[in-house]
Amino acid sequence: MNKRFTISSTVINLSFMVYCALCLIPLLVVLSISLSDEQSIFQFGYHLIPLKFSLNAYQFILNGNSPIVRAFLVTIIVTLAGTLLHLIISSLFAYSLSRNEVKYRHIVSFLVVFCLLFNGGLVPWYILLSKYLHLKDTLYVLFVPYLVSSVNVLIMRNFFKASIPESIIESARIDGSGEFHTFIKLVVPLSTPVLATIGLFTAVFLWNDWFTAALFIEDGKLYTLQFLLQSIMNNIAFLQGNALTAKAAAAQPDETARMATCIISVGPIVLAYPYLQKYFVKGLTLGAVKS
C-alpha cells in the first residue's frame, strides 16, 4: 500500500512539475527576448538565455515621452481605485444580505441571482454609460461599471453567514456598538481571506481589461496599458509615436519592445500574488458549511 502511494505521489509530483515548466518556459522566453539586443534576435532567433544582454527595450518604453508610462499610471489608478471601491461596496452589500434582521433580504438576494443569470446586453450597457451617465471618455468609465459583482456579493454573503459567529455580533450590540462600527472593527478583520481573494480577482480583471477602453475611450491620455499593448502588438509604430526620421524609427527596438511591454504588464500581478497566496486555501472554501 505504501509503495503504491509512493508511486502515485511521484507520478503526480512529476506531472505538476512538467505542467509548471510548460507554464514558466514561455514566460522565461519572453523575458529573455526583452533583455536581448534587437540585432541578435533577428540574427539568431529566440533563446532561453539572452545571447547579447541589452536594456534598450526597457529604456525605450520607460522614457518620459513614451505613452507606455502614462498608460501604466492610468492602469495603476484604475486598478487600485476600482479594487478598493469594489471591496467596500460589495462587502457592505453582502453583509447586509447576510443579516437575518434585514427586511426583504430574500427578495434582494433573488435580484442579485437574477442579475447573475441575465443581463441587458452590450448595447443597453453602452447607451446607459455613454448617453445617460455621461461616463464616456472619462477615467471613471474604466472602473465604475465594475464596482459591484453578483458573484462576489454571493460569495461574501455566504462567507459572512458561515464564518462570522453570531455571538460576536450580539456581544458587540450589547456593548453598544453600531452596525457600521461592528462591521469595520469585527467583521472586516475576520474576513481577510474572502476580501484578499476577491480583491486579487478584481485587481487582475481590472488590470487585464482592455475591452472597456476600446469601447469608451477615445482620448489617448486615458488609454490603459492592456489596450495600448493591443495596439503595440498590431503595430510597433504606435509605441514609437511620431518618429522624426525614418532612420530614427528604424533604430528603435521592435520585437524586444513588444516583449518588454508584456513583462511590464504582468509584473505587478506576479509580484502581488505571493503575498496573497496564503489566503487562497481559505478562499477556495468560501461559503463552506461549518459545524
Question: Roughly how many Å is the radius of gyration?
Answer: 24 Å
Number of E-type strands: 0
Low-confidence stretches: 242-250, 287-291
Q: Give the integer mean of the pLDDT values.
A: 80
By DSSP (H or I, 4+ residues per run), the number of helices equals 16
Structural class by SSE content: mainly alpha
Characterize the biggest β-sheet.
none
User: For the terminal residues, how far apart are their CA atoms?
Assistant: 33 Å
What is the strand content? Answer: under 5%
Main location: membrane
Keywords: Cell membrane, Membrane, Transmembrane, Transmembrane helix, Transport
Protein name: ABC transporter permease subunit
Membrane topology: Multi-pass membrane protein
What does this structure look like?
It is built from 16 helices and no strands. By secondary structure, it is mainly alpha-helical. The C terminus is likely disordered.
Record keyword descriptors for this entry.
membrane; single chain; 291 residues; 71% helix; transmembrane helix; cell membrane; 16 helices; transport; mainly alpha; 0% strand; ABC transporter permease subunit
Short description:
With 291 residues, the chain is an all-alpha fold. It has helices at residues 2-34, 38-44, 56-61, 67-98, 105-117, 122-132, 150-163, 166-174, 179-190, 192-208, 211-216, 225-234, 237-240, 246-251, 255-276, 280-283.
How would the blueprint of this fold be written?
Elements lengths: L1 H33 L3 H7 L11 H6 L5 H32 L6 H13 L4 H11 L17 H14 L2 H9 L4 H12 L1 H17 L2 H6 L8 H10 L2 H4 L5 H6 L3 H22 L3 H4 L8
